[in-house]
Amino acid sequence: MAPRRLSLRRMLVVARKEFYHIARDPRILFLVTVAPAFLLVMLSYVFALDVERVHLGVQNLDHTPLSREFVSHVTADPDFVLITWLDPGEDTDPLFVRGVVDMVLVIPPGFAAQILRGGPATVHCVVDGVDALAASRTVGLLESRVAAFTVDGAPSRAPLEGVLSAGEDIFEIRDRAWYNEALKSLVSMVPGLLAVVLTMPALALALALAREKETGSFEGLIVTPVRGSEYLTGKLVTYVVSGLASTVLVWLVATLWFRVPFRGDLPTFLLLTAGYLFASMGISMLVASFARNQQTAMFLVLMVFFIPSFFLSGLIRPVTDEPIGQAVAQVLPSTHFIFISRGVFLKGLGLRALQSPALALVAIGVACLAVSLRLFDKKIP
How many other CB atoms sit within 10 Å of the CB of residue 360? Predict the structure, then answer.
């Protein structure tokens, strides 16, 4: 039997049918059109690990023209942003606790005199070790600025050119990391990862709501006196309590297995985690309102929670200063909880110091719950 000839007309009919199918299915439309661009943005952020901006505090105890010129050289480009000058003897701890600065540069007395004698001139830097990867890159960035200072000419340093040309032996950088002195990435990563793993209860809630839609369990609700708000709130309370039990377990794993120091108060941590679970499950209920089945619910939860939590919330790299990136990060519960978790674990912060991210989580949860209740209809979908 002779093979049938290729028909352009039939091929176009099939192609038109597939275009129609893609246009009608939002999931497939997203996968074939938007997903590649979305993944490019996400993966580019993951592998672009350069430090974009370092908020710097300076304590100049030398008060010489050369020390001031050194500070001007370090902050000459946008990588280092001078936030504040510290007075002699001023405590730097509040600046790190509030997240005002990432590094404090201390220029000791006799800085210029040491350079004139041929060095080495000592420069002290203290970094916030809560994010170990960012702290290591910040110290490396400072070292490159110091090395550049020894070779860049300036009119005010003309008499020193012969000394500065000696290069790396002129300066000695003594760095110290607070809250994570060894700059172990595991110490900073494990508390941050709690924001990712504790989305599992929110995923379970979304799947439970989608499963009841899919199996038709909502039929029984029609003939009961249970209101929609009572139904959703009951489920929310159940999964928040279950999530707190999971929190105790992951806290034990972090402290006993990974030996991450826990400097805060456990009841305070559980209270703040309840706020995170409330915000996450509010989003989860909102997602479930639009999901017709469990597969769709799982896909949406993964897109809303997992990918942004890894790449946009400050877990792997600091949150970008770009307006769009900042806006996206602020609506993610994981952004606020990573700050809370690292603050409680490594800095020992309490409710007063963490009230801003805690209130943000409550606001996200209340807003999402209100919208979910508005959308919820106790009828067969």
Answer: 21
CA dist., res. 332 & res. 210, Å (int): 22
Q: What is the pLDDT of residues 69-97, one digit of tens each?
A: 888 888 887 778 888 888 888 888 888 88
Give residue 354's pLDDT.
92
- Helix, coil or strand: residue 83: strand
Tokens 């370092």 locate to 54
Range among 90-99, 272-281, 286-295 rated most confident? 272-281
Render pLDDT for 297-315 as a digit per residue (tens, 0 to 9). Answer: 888 888 888 777 777 788 7
Note the residue count of the chain: 381
Region label for 261, one of left (φ > 0), alpha (ψ between -120 and 50) or beta (otherwise): beta
Residue 293: is it exposed, middle or buried by C-beta count within 10 angstroms (0-12/13-18/19+)?
Answer: middle
User: In order of start, what are the domains of the chain with their CATH numbers?
Assistant: 54-178 (3.40.1710.10), 185-375 (no CATH)
Give me 185's structure tokens.
Answer: 């990435």
pLDDT, tens digit (0-9, with 9 covering 90-100), for 161-219? 554 544 445 667 777 777 777 777 778 888 888 888 888 888 888 888 888 777 766 65
User: Model's pTM, two decimal places?
Assistant: 0.74
